[in-house]
Write a structure and sequence with these properties.
This protein has two domains: 117 residues, D-Maltodextrin-Binding Protein, domain 2 (3-Layer(aba) Sandwich), CATH 3.40.190; 104 residues, 3-Layer(aba) Sandwich (D-Maltodextrin-Binding Protein, domain 2), CATH 3.40.190.10. It is built from eleven helices and eleven strands. The strands form three sheets. Strands 2-1-3-10-4-11 form a six-stranded mixed beta sheet. By secondary structure, it is α/β, with parallel strands linked by helices. InterPro entries: ModA, ModA/WtpA. The complex is composed of two ATP-binding proteins (ModC), two transmembrane proteins (ModB) and a solute-binding protein (ModA). Keywords: Metal-binding, Molybdenum, Signal. GO terms for molecular function: metal ion binding; molybdate ion binding; tungstate binding. Belongs to the bacterial solute-binding protein ModA family.
């Protein structure tokens, strides 16, 4: 009798679990997972908070270097939206057939600046003597130029400004631009090259030099939905082009490039 009762209970529990599983899956799909370049952290956090306040829908944000995120998508990571800090890694995601090119468009632009957290460094001129004086016996922080967009832009600028041969051995590489910023904030590096938006987001650093836009390729952040994105993701994706989102982006130092998906594929 007891055995029969246990069998009945087990069977009912299994049926109950099976009945609940579709609802659990649906709940998971209502959550939007965004893969975004680390430099988007402050702005995208605020945008997601505004969206969640208006809709009561959950947005999960995952930040890392654009290259790491693009590779994770290629390996099958289940993100809904991808925001890259350059066109190269978005094009990689396109080549890997993981993003919906119908949703792909440039979103915002940015600029490079030199920052410091030290009170005795208020200005750095764009010449080797001024950089070497500021760096001293330490190193200048930049994102890794072998794969991180901010580092790629920084190296291109230093090369075009004829500074790379002098500074190449005076650099400390980080795996993301926010990691490079952290080195400067902690004064482990006297100066560093980061995005303008990073300088605005940080209360610990100040800008000591503006890097000329003409010294590097345009800094464009494209966005796209993945091919497996949910309907909930489409709604948040649209919110990224809203007036509220644009206001936050402007406050954080970004310039809006496009308010709607118009470009089917970025130039390669």
């Amino acid at each position: 009798m007891q055995r029969t009762f246990r069998v009945i209970v087990s069977t009912l529990f299994l049926l109950f679990s099976l009945l609940l599983s579709p609802f659990s899956h649906a709940s998971d799909r209502e959550k939007v997972l965004v893969f975004a370049a680390s430099s988007m952290t402050t702005a995208l956090d605020q945008i997601a908070q505004a969206y969640q306040k208006q809709t009561e829908r959950t947005v999960v944000l995952s930040y890392a270097s654009s290259s790491a995120l693009a590779r994770q998508l290629a390996y099958g990571a289940p993100a809904d939206i991808y925001v890259s800090a350059n066109e190269k890694w978005m094009n990689y995601a396109v080549d890997q057939a993981v993003v919906d090119t119908n949703t792909l468009s440039p979103w915002v632009s940015n600029a490079l600046v030199v920052v410091s957290a030290r009170d005795d460094i208020s200005q750095v001129n764009l010449d080797d003597a001024s950089f070497l004086h500021a760096i001293g016996n330490a190193r200048m922080a930049i994102a890794d130029p072998t794969h991180v967009p901010a580092g790629i832009y920084a190296k291109e600028s230093l090369e075009n400004l004829q500074l790379w041969p002098v500074l190449a051995n005076k650099l400390a590489y980080s795996n993301s631009v926010r990691a490079a910023l952290a080195l400067v904030e902690r004064k482990e590096a006297p100066i560093g090259i980061v995005y303008r938006s990073d300088a605005i987001a940080s209360k610990a650093v100040h800008v000591v030099a503006d890097v000329p836009d003409a010294s590097h390729a345009p800094i464009i952040f494209p966005k796209a939905m993945t091919k497996d994105a949910s309907e909930a993701a489409a709604q948040f994706f649209d919110f990224l082009s809203s007036d509220d989102a644009h206001r936050i982006l402007a406050e954080q130092g970004f310039n809006v490039v496009s308010s709607s998906p118009s470009d089917q594929e970025l130039s390669k």
